[in-house]
Amino acid sequence: MRREIVIVLFVVGLAGPAAAAEGAVVGVGSKAFTESVILGEMAAQLAEDAGFQAEHVEGLGGTRLLWEAIVAGKIDVYPEYTGTLTEEIFAGEELSGDDELRERLARFGLKASPPLGFNNTYVLGMKEELAARRGIRTIGDLRGHGDLVLRFSNEFMKRADGWKSLARRYGLPQRDVRGLEHALAYEALEEGVIQVTDLYATDAKIEKLGLRRLQDDLGHFPRYDALFLYRVELEKRAPSWVDALCSLGGRLDETTMAALNGRVELDGTREAAVASAFLARSLGTEVATVEASIAREIGGYTLEHLRMVAVSLFWAVLVAVPLGVLAARRARLGQLVLGVVGVIQTIPAIALLVLLIRPVGWFSDELGYPQAVVALFLYSLLPIVRNTHAGLRAISPPLTESAMALG
Question: Are 385 and 327 in contact (CB under 8 A)?
Answer without folding.
Answer: yes
